[in-house]
Amino acid sequence: MPNAIIHHCPSLKLARERKETITDYSSIKISSFLSKYAKGKKYYIYTHGCQANYRDSEIFKGILEEVGFKPSIDIDHANIILINTCAVRENAENKVLGEIGNLKRLKNKKDITIIIAGCMAMEEVMVNELIKTFHHVDIILGTHDIAKLPDLLEEHLKKDKRVIEVNSGSGYIHERLPSVRDSIFKAFVNIAYGCDKFCTYCIVPYTRGRERSRDPKDIIKECKDLVKQGYLEITLLGQNVDSYGKDLKKKYSFAKLLDEVAKLKIPRISFLTSHPYDFSLEIIDVMKKHKNIQPYLHLPLQSGDDKILKLMGRKYDSKKYLSIIKYAKRVMPNLSISTDIIVGFPNEKDSQFKNTLKLVKAVKYDSAFTFIYSPRSGTPAAKMKDNISYQTKVQRFKKLNEILKQQMSENNKKLLNHAFSVLVDGVSKTDKTMLTGRLPNNKIVNFKGNKNLIGKIVKVKINEEHIYFLMGSLEK
Ligand code: SAH
Ligand code: SF4
Ligand code: F3S
């Protein structure tokens, strides 16, 4: 490859291998060359995908600011442009590829460094395409290689060559990376990295590696520090929080971790994402025990049909899923439940799709993220021959969403005329005269109020229900 230094390229095969987890407590070192280079220069980061990527971008910001770069409010004034990508579905990737293509116009105008990081950088096919066709990309950096950003940047600048560093089979946890958080009152805290579930449709275990739980002591310390800094909300993050601690030498459960974090007296705690296979009912008991754990559970269903669930490699059936929901609703009647559902898995029959609808009707979700199945190269499902037309998939997708919308609206009606505590996030994006925030059950409410309430917890009475948000008024 001309003009490129390729340290490592991704390998889906290596990504499947389990390595011993090593926790690295060392800090990053910045050379005087790089500090000098960064003087007066700015960076801009685009983030796609899930909360794991948003948290990684906070670390990218931390590293770049430690080098000496300042944030740029717009891309046109940035000297370093980093795109933190998502690979979960094809349409997400196409959007990013378009974005990378657009950067060429900036590169032609001035000397900038373009860095591609995140989950797309972990795919063999994608990295080959980036190297071959996107010559204006300077650095490709894998999800396990974040700490190497300063070294790779220096190498690129000194040698004037493109640099590719993507390791697939890492077992590292970096505890001392700097970060600049996006919010001064809401924080994400990773409890585990990667995923061991290997659902047959999903690319995440390949892009994020095998599951690695952080030491509970490190998590509690991070949470304590956030409390000291005045944070009001912590969301514990993992691709599958319920299996937290199963890989630790001294076994530890998520229920125990949640209980410990709740004792720190943070006003609001929530967690993402649960997996029905690993979910223990003890988690519901801990949620009930602590007022500061939000009455909100995101429990992905994916499909309501047992045969499809088996083909998806989800390791639970509809009965098990419903038994969790039944227990949760009995113990916490005001619990709000959300989910992820995929329609159009290869060869999904109409009767199987109807089983999903049946289950959806039984649960009465408060919100749902719905997706049309997207084949991901290298996953087992991508090799399955599919005889269902895209048009049928779209029809099912629409039908599912009609039912979900109806349910959400019915659930929201029950909130009318009740007052709830609301953490005020900011000014509403759609109406600049309104504030917006979230109820304890994670629903969005818009209401009139002074901007100095942003970052505070207030009482709001619900006056109007819409499908995706509520309207309310401040209670004095
Ligand atoms: N760890 C989480 C989130 C994974 S990605 C979990 O297990 O729930 C978020 C969602 O994207 C998944 O829940 C799934 O519904 C969806 N998804 C993943 N791969 C997909 C694919 N190939 N096509 C369509 N949707 C997919
Ligand atoms: Fe993907 Fe399944 Fe892991 Fe979720 S649990 S990240 S859907 S492999
Ligand atoms: Fe996307 Fe990677 Fe998250 S594929 S959903 S950014 S783990």
Describe this structure in words.
The chain has 476 residues and is α/β, with parallel strands linked by helices. The chain has helices at residues 12-16, 32-38, 51-67, 90-102, 104-109, 124-133, 149-159, 204-208, 216-228, 254-262, 282-289, 306-312, 318-331, 350-363, 390-413; strands spanning 4-8, 22-24, 42-47, 70-71, 80-85, 113-118, 139-141, 162-165, 172-174, 186-190, 192-193, 212-213, 233-237, 268-272, 296-298, 336-343, 367-372, 419-427, 435-438, 444-447, 457-465, 470-474. The chain has a 7-stranded parallel sheet, sandwiched between helices. The protein has a 5-stranded mixed β-barrel with strand order 18-19-20-22-21. It has a 3-stranded parallel sheet with strand order 10-13-14, with helices on both faces. The termini are far apart. The mean pLDDT is 96. The site of iron/sulfur cluster (SF4) has 10 residues, from helix 8.
Report the sheet with the most strands, covering strand number, pairing sense and barrel closure.
Answer: 7 strands, parallel
Oligomerization status of the protein chains: single chain
Structural category is: alpha/beta
**Low-confidence segments, ≥5 residues, pLDDT <50?**
none
Keywords, separated by commas or semicolons:
7-stranded parallel β-sheet; 5-stranded mixed beta barrel; 22 strands; binds S-adenosyl-L-homocysteine
